[in-house]
Write a structure and sequence with these properties.
Pfam families: FeS
Strand content: 25-35%
Protein name: 4Fe-4S domain-containing protein
Distance between the termini: 22 Å
Radius of gyration: 24 Å
GO molecular function: 4 iron, 4 sulfur cluster binding; metal ion binding
Oligomer: single chain
Largest sheet: 9 strands, mixed
Keywords: 4Fe-4S, Iron, Iron-sulfur, Metal-binding
Mean pLDDT: 84
Low-confidence stretches: 214-227
Length: about 230
């Protein structure tokens, strides 16, 4: 897209738009940091056709961006990725640190409330490593769905990690990202640090229900202007 717009710009590199080169101006147009009218050359009659073509390309880019947006419902925050369950599983995995002293084992069905989340979860324990337990979410607080299994109430737990498959932007190990878990009933964007990548699989740790920055409440699409 940048090359197509650059080819339609005057190519004078005059700097009057605030960019040193027309290629930089093309990128600023795509990112929404500059407006087309800031190029004085495009206002000339000889560049009218080019200006119209650039406007169409920018509009197409905006439509594509809107289609690919991943955003939370409760806060209108934009997410970098959508976190999906691992293959043959129904939800993303969570690694929990329970505050209780109840003896647990793999296969147990537990009921807990993540610290900072108002919704109680029900999950099956997949693995236990020292005091950390890895679970797969089975549903919200509804014991009747598990009449054949005793549901163990472990109280409040701290969620330390998520694991699943992802779709969205390309990730790098060590970067802090915003993500929307597949099973989150509140559709709330979480944040965390990418610690492991394997093809389309990712493990995110240091989980936080808060995200940085604020949405643009003056915009019709608040998360478009997210910074």
């Amino acid at each position: 897209m940048q090359k197509k717009i650059s080819a339609l710009l005057p190519g004078f590199n005059c700097g009057k738009c605030g960019c040193s080169q027309c290629e930089d101006f093309a990128l600023s147009l795509i990112n929404g940091k500059k407006e087309l009218r800031t190029c004085p050359v495009l206002t000339r009659p000889g560049f009218a056709a080019n200006k119209t073509s650039i406007e169409k390309l920018i509009q197409k880019q905006i439509q594509n961006n809107n289609h690919n947006i991943i955003a939370g419902v409760i806060d209108n925050y934009k997410a970098d990725i959508f976190l999906k369950p691992l293959k043959n599983e129904k939800s993303c995995r969570e690694t929990l640190l329970p505050f209780c002293t109840i003896e647990l084992k793999a296969g147990d069905i537990i009921k807990y409330r993540p610290l900072g989340c108002p919704i109680t979860h029900i999950a099956k324990i997949i693995d236990i490593q020292h005091s950390l337990i890895t679970v797969a979410i089975k549903g919200p607080d509804n014991d009747r769905n598990f009449e054949n299994n005793a549901v163990i109430d472990v109280g409040i737990c701290m969620v330390l990690a998520f694991q699943g498959r992802y779709e969205g932007k390309t990730l790098k190990v060590g970067e802090t990202i915003r993500f929307l878990p597949h099973h989150c009933m509140m559709q709330k964007v979480h944040s965390g640090v990418v610690v492991q990548l394997e093809k389309e699989k990712v493990r995110i740790e240091i989980i936080d229900l808060k995200v940085w920055g604020m949405p643009d409440t003056n915009s019709d699409n608040p998360y478009i202007s997210y910074k």
